[in-house]
Amino acid sequence: MTDIVLTHGTVVTMNGRREILRDGAVVIEGNKIVSVGKTEKIKPKYMADVELDCTGKLVLPGLVDCHVHLAQALIRGCADDLSLVPWLRERVHPMQGTYSPKDGELSTKLCCLEMIKSGTTCFVESGLHWRYGFNEIARVVEEIGIRAALSKKLMNLRGYADVPDAICESMAEDGETTLRQTLEMIKKWHGKAGNLIHVWFGARTPGACTVDFYREMVEQARKHQTGITIHLGEVKQDIDYMRKEFKMTPMEFMRHCGVVGPHVIYVHGVWIPQEDFKILSETEGTICHCPASNLKLASGFAPVPEMLHAGVNVALGCDGGPSNNCYDMIREMKLAAIVHKARLLDPEVLPAERVLEMATVNGARATLWGKELGSLEPGKLADLIVVDQRNPHLVPVRNPVSNLVYAANGSDVDTVIIDGKIVMQGREVKTIDEAKIVERVQETGLEVDKRLGLEIGPNWPVK
Prior knowledge:
Low-confidence stretches: none
Helix content: 25-40%
CATH superfamily of the largest domain: Metal-dependent hydrolases
CATH topology of the largest domain: TIM Barrel
């Protein structure tokens, strides 16, 4: 008896031939995909416990968000229309610096809820401060049933580029302590929850870590065969600092510190110079492109088409609640697809198909599940989503891929399956009480403002 069969859908396989099956079917047994093909050939072969009729719907791999700040969902909209350093020093870090583990837990529930409802099945957390409650957050991820690489934030300085005290006291952490805590969490959580949870090293940017500290972190990551994620070249100050302080480009500096390899995700890469593309390609690292965050904070335009042309693996990320204001990868795909057309005055740059690759196979390659995620093929993990194409803004459907990227949004996702389990069906998330979470978030979010004496609201008069 087969566990789940999805039938009569338009199946975007993302396999090596990028085949799209009209009236297609996907068969799931346990947590694996066992068969993909035409419904007429698949259906007679399998008796399913659950059959999902996907008529009028798109079936595709779950989206992989390679840059998420779980703790920032609770402070969504707290620092709109500010530049990066004031954004960090005056709002984001001080607000997060008031957190208790209960706040971190609640923010994680909200963030995971939003990601699931918009089609993300796997994500990489950028770096958790210990005060957020790593254990509590890991338990939430396990309970909700989403796939996650949870990174512990590491630092041994308080700087950001050439600003020596950029990180406020409440967010500062000791280097030896952060390293010890990360190793403890690897021992406790890495590969746990049925291998839904991995634990990574979340290094802070140059200016917050010494060269020797980076190297020690790299040695431990290699020893434990896990990943590293780091913001790199997000703003011009980053590249100016590395050139002035070390006489190196960002990737030259990363190579100098040993922070290179297929297990490393460099987030943003807005100011990565062309001479670094070769290092990125040769070392097989990943650039995580976060267009909404980069545009909202006026950081600049990451040279994504140029990187892809140079053979660099580029994935996508939504970033956080204050910098993007949402965790919707479908919206992020559209932005990634159109911003570079305008930047380069070339409408043929970064077509929809390439952007969907960034959100699926490229994202999967960036994670430790790379060979098991990103496409719908026998033997792959059963992480997939179903998108309803029968909504008014999605018809008529000519090219289902471009229709998804340019016309859809997260609310079109109908069903989400992670690790062979139905986590959402008919827009109802089965593993968490959505209404209860939304109510608690509204109350707690405003309480965070009050802790710092902030009154964040409309710039226009309210009566």
